[in-house]
Amino acid sequence: MEKIERTARDRWLVVPTSEPDPQVVHRCTEAVVAAALAEVSDTSVVSVAINRTGQLNVPASAIGMPAFIEQDLPGYCEVVVHQQDPGGHTVEIRVWVPLTWNGRFLGTAGGGNRTTAGLMPGDEFRGATLANAVRNGFAAASTDSGVGRDPRISDWQLDESTGELDDNLIENWVHRSTHDMTVIGKAVTTAIHGATPRFSYFQGTSGGGRQAIAQARLHPADYDGVWSSDPAMNWTRLIPAELWPALVMKELDNALAPEKFEAFRQAVVDDFALRTGSPESFTTSDEPPAFDPYRLVGQATTAGPIVEADAQVMKMIWDGPRTATGEQLWFGLRPGAESWGALGPHGLCITKEEPDGRRTPDPWAIALSWFATWLQRDPEWDWRTLTFDEYERLFLKGIEEFAYLSVEDPDLSELRDGGRKLLLTHGTDDQVIFSQGSRHYFDNVIEHMGGRPATDEFARFFLCAGDGHSFRIPSGFGIDLATGMIALMNWVENGIAPDSLETLHFADDGISVAEVRSIAAYGTASVLDQQVTYRSPRHPSAVVFERK
């Protein structure tokens, strides 16, 4: 096999421009697809059509994406299939099969608590979509798990007629629909091209990264290679921990302005630079950097001076949720990471100014739904009634009641024994999913699977310093979709295990690459081990480091 390399910013494979086989075009029909799915239970073919226009009009989505036109698409056969789950819900699966195919299949994932993110414009999002899959010559599939038409973005799991959770929809979300999508997608692809996929891959980020880990653990035979980016695994600890910053601010009656949060973040970065010599605008350690927020008391900001109460809030948010006796329930926001809206309207530390001038916390929606709907079956629950004691009780209740949601079992022996590969990546400055959770998981995998050398044979983890949640941080360095896919494919198809990955920093235009840097796989070398020294113009007396 020839080594796979990048062909353009968002391309990792060249799609031939030759005319497709007429037989392939001829097989893009409802009859052919229906025959292919005859043995797949409870399926019906909704539509089959060829799109040769080069574009697709994408309507606005329920997750807040505006309408846009997806362009530069090759000719493809679009198939929509409905499948009834055991609870009678209609699951919608979409399969796109390029008329000129490279013999590969790509399973796509979702975000948040949905298994499909639909179509998202641009290539900055670190999640494969049907569109960028077919642009690279892959056949691909997506599934809505039966909730795609539910307007309740976070509360689809509640059956409003009974007031109870819908176990079938939950199982769809955890793993069943993704596996069914894979079976259906491969069958449709095989029927249209008359050949089975040579290689199959699954890729997802955030909630889609959770899906990827679920596939690797529960259905390892489905894919030759799986890439999980910034995964929302450890669900029963991660999601309630995402409410902790808002609860801290509410209970201490001190909702911080973004300017104060930013002062603490910048102080962490500056302190790390002085201690380690790093010239970066982010911290580069695997371990969250240590910093005492009380050092900033008295410092002026545009939102007023920092006071001891502000430092107390920041310390508790960094420490993460704890029991009344001090036991850590899960990780907190990594010091140096931003989560108060500077990079968009979302974050765990968002606060808003009320008409009367007071500032109040604005909690993370999925975390609110966890406490309201999952744990209490009450979507109208007022989170402002929550206390630290009740938070602890509900946190522990969720761990016990919903253990099957967590997707945290480190036993990947079936994946290993089948010769499959797992690529796990996480940005250290993830704004909403604590990168320490992925490190915790991979440490458990290493221990369970016989140590790092044994684990290296089938699973690699990369902590990407300065990278954010599923998108590149403009001031930092980030891994993009093409980079991860190239690394995974070379590992699966050419036996070239990824010892390092390239991360990219873009120029102000957001298009051209200003700098490329390399990061080592977790456990093989620290960031500083890969660098040589020079003097920092910001701290001339400090020794700092430049990557080779």
Low-confidence stretches: 526-548
Average of pLDDT: 91
Secondary-structure-derived class: alpha/beta
Radius of gyration: 24 Å
Give the N-to-C terminal Cα separation.
29 Å
Largest sheet: 9 strands, mixed
The helical percent reads 25-40%
What does the overall shape look like?
A: globular
Side by side, the strands of the main sheet go: 1-4-5-7-6-10-11-14-15
Beta-strand content estimate: 15-25%
Number of helices: 15
How many β strands by DSSP? 19
Describe what this molecule looks like in 3D.
The chain is an alpha/beta fold. It is built from 15 helices and 19 strands. The strands form six sheets. A nine-stranded mixed β-sheet has the order 1-4-5-7-6-10-11-14-15, sandwiched between helices. α4 crosses α5 (207-218). The protein is globular and about 75 Å long.
Strand and helix map with partners:
Blueprint: H1 22-26, H2 30-36, E1 43-51, E2 56-58, E3 68-70, E4 76-84, E5 90-98, E6 104-107, H3 130-135, E7 139-143, E8 158-159, E9 164-165, H4 167-193, E10 199-205, H5 207-218, E11 225-229, H6 235-241, H7 244-251, H8 258-276, H9 308-319, E12 351-353, E13 359-361, H10 365-374, H11 388-401, H12 413-417, E14 421-427, H13 435-448, H14 452-456, E15 459-464, H15 481-494, E16 500-506, E17 513-520, E18 531-535, E19 543-547
Parallel strand pairs: 6-7, 6-10, 10-11, 11-14, 14-15
Antiparallel strand pairs: 1-4, 2-3, 4-5, 5-7, 8-9, 12-13, 16-17, 18-19
Helix pairs in contact: 2-4, 4-5
Record keyword descriptors for this entry.
15 helices, two-stranded antiparallel sheet, alpha/beta, nine-stranded mixed sheet, disordered C terminus, 19 strands, 548 residues
